[in-house]
Amino acid sequence: MNRPGADQPLHTPRSRALGMHLVLMLVACLLASRLLVAHEVAPAADGSGTPWGADYFPNTLLTDQDGRQVHFFDDLIKGKVVVINFIFTSCSDSCPLETARLRQVQNLLGDRVGKDIFFYSISIDPLSDTPAVLKAYARRFKVGPGWQFLTGDFADVTELRHKLGLFIEGVDNGRNKDHNLSLIVGNQDTGRWMKASPFENPWILADQLANTLQNWKQPSIEQSYADAPQIRPPSSGEELFRTRCASCHSLGPQDGQGIGMRSIGPDLVGVTGRRDPAWLSRWIREPDRMLAERDPIATALFERFEKIPMPNLRLDENSAQAIIEFLREETDRQQTLAAQTQ
User: Fold this and answer.
1) For residue 277, which of 34, 53, 78, 305 sits 20 to 30 Å off, Cα-Cα?
2) CA pair distance 153, 237, nearest whole angstrom
3) Rounded to 5°, angle at Cα 262 from 246 and 139
4) What is the mean pLDDT of residues 167-190?
5) How far apart are CA 177 and CA 88, in angstroms?
């Protein structure tokens, strides 16, 4: 039997590979890209018309953050539109970023989450991630209803990752818990499954869930593109900020149109004037080391923002400087605009 993470048509968003984790994600997407073709499959034994039914998915016993036991197929995905990812709460780089990004998507979808669309984050470190630990983690990120954090037997969770196509042999079972960063989103009832990047634009991911997988949104009003403004290509610094930093940080009062995650990290307008350039560059590149060294500013930020550590995104000096330059330019632009409107 095939698996939805392999032989099912997938969407694999393009993303620049920065560091080991991004390389892993790119490899996973490339392995799946050869399968972006429609194919005929036999109906499932349960008569659902999709091969991804009870005869394929394991009915893995899991425990959620409230200590309730659930079965993966029967209770979590059967007949539902779902988002599934694998994390561990002690992760200091990709997992906080991924959780913050999904929190933005949850905000965009509103009360549909828990009714039409369901989010599941499953721990790959069940020995450490007890229900109490998962509940505290969800609370720090201010996760809303409809999003469950789950743990279970390590072997069962590993089997589930294989079935979902989110396991890279020889990497995911390594000592450093390097793991496939892709999300998998799907509609079990129709059998349509896609991979998505944790660095995906939140509006795009929300639209995939709302439109591509479940058509509850009203169609947009057709408009002519003749008067559309010319699109300004982003600088490398802006691209890095939007794909890496904007999961947790806003940039001015209008940034994110209401979904800037000020509760996860501080707004960054004016930060280049408040922080020493050398400190800021190192903080972008080595936040975990600075926290371990008990840097006073880093420690104060950690305590202020729900003790969620700044993730180490494996950025080099050039990337850090590009982000700083963008922050400086955007601060100047907004300050100039504010002065003109006074």
Assistant:
1) 305
2) 42
3) 105
4) 70
5) 9
Q: 310: domain range?
A: 236-341
What is residue 51's predicted lDDT score, i.e. its pLDDT?
66
Q: Is residue 220 part of a domain?
A: no
pTM score, whole prediction: 0.66
131 and 30 belong to one structural domain: yes
pLDDT (tens digit, 9 = 90+) per residue, 117-165?
999 999 999 999 999 999 999 999 989 999 999 999 999 999 999 888 8
Q: Is 226 a member of any domain?
A: no
- Residue 64: what are its φ and ψ, rounded to 5°? -90, 180
Take residue 305 and report the two structure tokens written for it: 């923002």
> Would you say residue 287 has pLDDT above 80?
yes
Q: Are residues 183 and 261 in the same domain?
A: no
Taking CA atoms, 334 is separated from 96, 134, 322, 331, in Å, by 29, 39, 18, 5
Q: Give the pLDDT band (50/70/90) at residue 171.
A: low
- The upper half-sphere exposure of residue 144, i.e. CA atoms within 13 Å in the direction of its Cβ, equals 16
Helix ranges restricted to H, the chain: 19-33, 94-109, 131-140, 154-163, 202-207, 236-240, 271-274, 277-285, 287-292, 296-304, 317-341
CATH number of residue 162's parent domain: 3.40.30.10
Same domain? For 29 and 143 the reply is yes
Bridging pattern class, strands 117-123 and 81-87: parallel
Tokens, residue 26:
């790119």
What does 190-253 look like in DSSP terms, one character per residue?
Answer: TTEEEEE-TTS-HHHHHHIIIIIS---SPPPPP--STTPPPPPPPPHHHHHIIIIITTT---ST
What stretch of H or E contains 121? Answer: strand 117-123
Query: Is it the case that residue 29 has pLDDT exceeding 70?
Result: no
Q: Which residues contact 255 (CB under 8 A, 6 or more apart)?
A: 246, 267
pLDDT score for 172: 56
Encode pLDDT of 185-225 as tens digits. Answer: 999 988 888 888 877 778 888 888 888 776 544 445 555 54
